[in-house]
Amino acid sequence: MRKQAILLITVIMFFLASSCNKDDNGDKNKPFIVLLGANPTTWSAGLSPYVDAGAMAWDITENNDTIDITDRLQFNENVNVDVVGEYEATYNVTDEAGNHANEETRLVKVRLTK
Q1: Residue 82 belongs to what domain range?
Q2: What is the SS3 assignment for the chain?
Q3: Mean pLDDT rounded to a whole number for the chain
Q4: Is residue 17 part of a domain?
């Protein structure tokens, strides 16, 4: 009888522990990013530095409110304006709940211009 009680308590504790999620705050909505300007875009070789047109980021909260989280955007680019070629400028963002947006990428074409 004692083994059965211990087994029952162990099973109950296992189910309680597996159903608890400390990080579950109810917000399952991924934020989203909107690129501003053209994509792809063309930049004149030798015109330094590259200046991206920017992006905006939005989040839909667990209460279905849409809020601007542009100030949380992370921007990364490797555009070499001295070398003709194609480069990427990327944006990403994470909301307060830890949800990651789909990364947005802008293709930057560095070209010789007259």
Answers
A1: 24-111
A2: CHHHHHHHHHHHHHHHHHHCCCCCCCCCCCCEEEECCCCCEEEECCCCCCCCCCEEEEEECCCCCEEECHHHCEEEECCCCCCCEEEEEEEECECCCCCECCCEEEEEEEECCC
A3: 85
A4: no
Q: Is the pTM higher than 0.90?
A: no
In a domain, 37, yes or no: yes
Please say whether the beta carbons of 56 and 81 come within 8 A: no
Our count of domains for the chain comes to 1
Judge whether 6 lies within some domain. no
DSSP bridge pairs for 68 = 58
Q: Identify the CATH number of the domain in which residue 57 sits.
A: 2.60.40.10
